[in-house]
Specification:
Length: 160
């Protein structure tokens, strides 16, 4: 049914739809975080929304990659921060290790490559792994599922 409707929509409006999805995801992360008195947001989630809403068929947009990539990369950053502190070489090592780990576990998600830097440069604690990382990423995936169901797009193509 939406495909018939989509044909009647202007090309400009269709290009706005992924932005609406990203708006909803970030708004919900912000509002629910405020309600729970915790943060469910971090800068890399903006880039995750680009992939989840504008490129839903991409392997990089799938829940395994979006959630797993952020969790594993954040874990690498927390381990590097704890073990080595913040140095040029430890920042580089953490990003390189995060990329390698995402490749090995099939959880590659480019925005998550920034997570070790974010963790290390802000001195984030271990609770950062749960909030905002795990809960925020899971919320983005849930919003993407609802959004793509409403727009009749097939997402996710696979859960795991």
């Amino acid at each position: 049914m939406f495909t018939r409707l989509r044909l009647q929509l202007s090309p400009m409006f269709i290009k706005l739809l992924p932005g609406i999805g990203g708006f909803i995801a970030i708004l919900l992360c912000s509002l629910l975080g405020d309600l729970a008195r915790t943060s469910l947001l971090m800068a890399p989630f903006g880039a995750s929304c680009v992939i989840a809403f504008a490129l839903p068929q991409s392997p990089l947009a799938q829940p395994r990659s979006l959630i797993g990539g952020h969790v594993l990369s954040t874990l690498v950053g927390l381990c590097a921060l704890t073990a080595f502190g913040v140095h040029a070489w430890s920042l580089a090592l953490a990003v390189g290790a995060a990329i390698t780990l995402m490749q090995l576990t099939r959880t590659l998600h480019p925005p998550a490559g920034a997570d070790p830097l974010l963790v290390m440069l802000t001195g984030a604690g271990w609770s950062f792994l749960l909030t905002p990382v795990l809960l925020g990423a899971a919320l983005i995936v849930l919003v993407a599922c609802g959004y793509h169901r409403a727009t009749k797009a097939h997402y996710p193509t696979k859960w795991w």
